[in-house]
């Protein structure tokens, strides 16, 4: 029983520390937004990958970088309306 409690506490600590790990109340929209933001952050943070993508798009590296940073604001569109 102590092992289950310890595992649950560790999971809760991870969820508090890392937003993208999700929890039971995470909506599909939040989860997909986190995935997209993490992907864009990884692309921007790894210059060789960013260069590869820029060549494939036929744009300069800085244009692709700034476009990805802008996409991080709303990566999957507007949030769904909340139903009461």
From TrEMBL:
Question: What's in the GO CC field?
Answer: precatalytic spliceosome; U2 snRNP
Query: What highest taxon heads this organism's lineage?
Result: Eukaryota
Could you tell me the Gene Ontology terms of the biological process aspect for this record? mRNA splicing, via spliceosome
Q: To which protein family does this belong?
A: Belongs to the SF3B5 family.
The protein, known as: Splicing factor subunit
